[in-house]
Amino acid sequence: MTQNLRLQAALAHARHGRAVLPVYWSTGGRCACGRVDCHSPAKHPIPELVPRGVKQATTSCVVIRAWWVYAPLANPALATGEVSGVVVLDVDGDHGGFDALRQLEHIHGQIPRTQGVRTGSGEHLYFAYPGIHLKNTAGKLGAGLDVRCCGGSAVTVGAVHRSGQIYDWQDGCRPDQVPIASLPTWLLERLTTQDPRPSVQPRTPHRGYAAAALASEEQQLLKASVGQRNTRLNLAAFRLGRFIATEALARGDVEAVLFDVAARLGLPLHEARATITSGLRAGSTRS
Description:
- This protein is an alpha+beta fold.
- It folds into 2 domains: about 5-190, Prim-pol fold (2-Layer Sandwich), CATH 3.30.2250; about 195-285, no CATH class.
- The chain has helices at about 5-15, 60-70, 95-110, 185-190, 205-220, 230-245, 250-265, 270-285, and strands at about 20-25, 25, 30, 75-80, 85-90, 115-120, 120-130, 135-140, 145-150, 155, 170, 180.
- The strands form 3 sheets. Strands 5, 6, 7, 8, 9, 11 and 12 form a 7-stranded mixed sheet that branches. It has a 3-stranded antiparallel sheet with strand order 1-4-10, with helices on one face.
- The longest helix has 17 residues, at about 230-245.
- It is elongated and about 65 Å long.
- It starts with a helix and ends with a helix.
């Protein structure tokens, strides 16, 4: 009996603690949902199986097997964000994604080697969930670069693109070949920085709000998981650096809090100093 590769891929993710769900497949180059104007062909949830969509993603092998008995051609999709511990960077080659990524790497340095999936028109790069809520974005990082995180999903290995291309792990980038990399600090900073909004005149953050932000960053840092503490410290410094730039907070006050938290988290002083200095510099000079 021939194995159902889509089911096997879904089960493999579940064994790694990554929640999955069934999405529609392609038939005759169109989405099996039957809608001529389908906006996401062969990529959106099957309502008969998951009426609440990605919220019903699971790691239960029993449920997953039942789904694929009902719909053996269903494409597997990975629920992204905290539920699976994965952030997916979707690089769409048809819309300039590879060029945009190269430009970012030229500025910030090459992204780390990590788990990656070959898609119908590009690739999905998997990064470890950083422990903070990240929205799904489309084009925020550049043309052809989308991010799937909290509340999102990404079609994964075993799925068949409407072009006929089968999603598969990139060479040397399977979970058993390379660990999932941490989200680069610069990438995290870009995803957590709000887009500038037009206004009649610049506004300086109120000092009370800035003080609350400082206290909030301190509490969030203390909750950071072991593998994400340095990354989270850099992000906190970056965010608070913007308050320093508007003179809503004094640099000395911010540094005192950040160094105190770093010490309580057990980060080496030289490492903490480099991280805090880098983050404050970037945040203070951000336009």
